Amino acid sequence: MQIFKKPNFTFMKYKFFAFALSGIIIAVGIVNITNKKGLNYGIDFAGGTLIQIRFRNPFPIADLRQSLSNIGLGNSKIQEVEKGQREFIIRTMLPEEDVDQELEAHVIMGNKVVETLKKDEDRLASEKGLKDLNNIEMNQLTYIFQTSFPDKAEELAEKIIDFRESAEQKGIIENLNQLIELEISPEAIELLKEKTYLGSMSIKRRETVGPQVGHELRRKATQATIWALIGMLIYIGIRFKFAYGVAAILTLAHDVLIT
Question: Do 34 and 53 belong to one domain?
Fold first, then answer.
C-alpha cells in the first residue's frame, strides 16, 4: 500500500518563511533573557540555599510564601513536590545588594527559613532540650538509647530511621504508636516520649552553595562547553566535512536560543 504516490516535497520552497519564523523566535528569546537580567541560574551556578521540606500537615503555599516574606525572602522560589501541599522545595537567594557575601551568610539564611517555618510547639520542645524525632540523625538517636538499652541502641535507632525514611512515611513519623509495628518495646517508646518530640516538618534535603563557588562553576562550565564544541567541530571536520561541523554548532546555538 502506497500512501504517498509522489513523495517529492519541495521543502526548500519554504526556506525563507522558516528563516523568518526562526529569527523571530530567537529574537523573542534574546529579549526575554535581557529583560529578566540574564539567565536563570540554578543554586549550583548562582549560589544560595535549596531546602526540601515535608510538613506533617498541609501547609498552604500562600501561607508559606507569606512566612518567607516576613523575613525578607518573598522572592524565594517555591515548588510543590506533590499534590496535597505537604512537601515543597524552597530555593532562597540573598537580596541583590548582599549577593557577594560569603557562604556563612547563605547558611544563616537557610537556618532562618527553617526556624521561621517551625511551629511554636516545636520551638518550646527544643527549648526544653527535646530532640526532633522527624529530623534527628542516626548517631543522636543511638546516643538516646545508649543509657537504657546499650546492647540494642544502634539496632533500635536504625529501625526507627529506616521506618521514617521509608516510601510510606516520606520522612515524617505521625505518631509514636506507629513504632509498635516495628516491634519496638513499650519501654523504648516511653523513653522516646521523654527525650524526643514529633516535629511538624522534616528537612529532607538541604544544599548551600556560596557565591564564589557558583562563579567558579559557571566559569568551568563555560570552558567545558567551548572545548566540547571545538572537539565536535574537529571530529566532524576530519570524519566528514568541516561545513557539517559548523552546521552542527549553529544548530545547537539555534536550539539553545529558542529554548
Answer: no
249 and 194, same structural domain?
A: no
- Which domain range does residue 18 map to? 13-40+215-258
* pLDDT of 183 above 70: yes
- pTM of the shown model: 0.69
Does 139 lie in the same domain as 181? yes
Looking at the structure of the chain, the number of domains it has is 3
β-strand pairing of 87-92 with 131-132: unpaired
Residue 111 lies in a domain: yes
